[in-house]
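To: structure desk
From: M.T.
Subject: fold request, one chain
Message: Could you run this one when you get a chance? Sequence is below, nothing fancy, just the single chain.
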Amino acid sequence: MSKLVTIYGGSGFVGRHIAQRMAKLGWRVRVAVRRPNEAMHVKPYGTVGQVEPVFCNIRDDASVASVMQGADAVVNCVGILTLSGRNTFDAVQHEGAERIARLAKDAGVATMVQLSALGADSDSDSEYARSKALGEEGVLEHMPEAMILRPSVVFGQDDQFFNRFASMSRMGPVFPLLGGGTKFQPVFVDDVAKAAVKGVLGEASGIYELGGPKVASLREWLVEILDVVYRRRLIANMPFWVGNMIAFGCDMVSKLTLGLWDNSILTRDQVKLLRNDNVVSQGAKSFADLDIEPHDPSTIIPDYLWRFRPTGQFDEIKESAKNLKV
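Reply: Done. Structure tokens follow.
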């Protein structure tokens, strides 16, 4: 019988790429999610019955344990960017990760891969960064041979980085930007999946920091995005104190509405994260140690950001038409 991997959060942005790669290798894939009925898109990744979405609540021991029964490996891709009810940073990214590792050890699971993030720091003033670091510590306490992946911002067709800024570029002639000088090293989603597969197969363990081949400031990335979507905008640098005021207001509205309005604009925790560069540390194990050559964003983002151009797919046709001789 083929081997089985349970991927917690396996229908998400990174998780589904890992699921697809594991299925191609012939593994059975159990995709553990809160809403299996919304994860049916993973089933065609393999043959009939090879990839199966199942219910799991990462905050519950019994639920986590039940979906890893018989698994040869587990991957944890569960993470949140904003708070939602009981799904706090600590509950999901710290306690949830530790719970999976503890139960995996008890179940005799051979390998584990934990998806963390660059900037994970137990001493950080950011709840997000702190919970990611505590989650790593919890995983290594129970599964010392686990692979920990710390990617920079992950990009791809459904990302929340390039897509978000490209969408915002349609809103007016001025683009207010917070943290324009902060450096980022975007990493392609499938490159992260390749790294995770090596961990599942037991070919690598330890902590790896993953970044793409290009490091640039947020302002420089925005300039590249504007060039791809054929838009000219005046980029206005926003002081951090203004960003804090906006984030505080958005957080308060979310809190006063008891979460009915989800703050997807800007949170105070995100403002804290924007104060620090998001790049691979010198001396850290990276893609080079995994024999993976990361993709340059410049070669990929035009393939999916075209829809944010003034006339979408027809922009290139219009440009070509200008060269026609009458």
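Reply (cont.): The chain has eleven helices and 13 strands. Let me know if you need anything else for the meeting.
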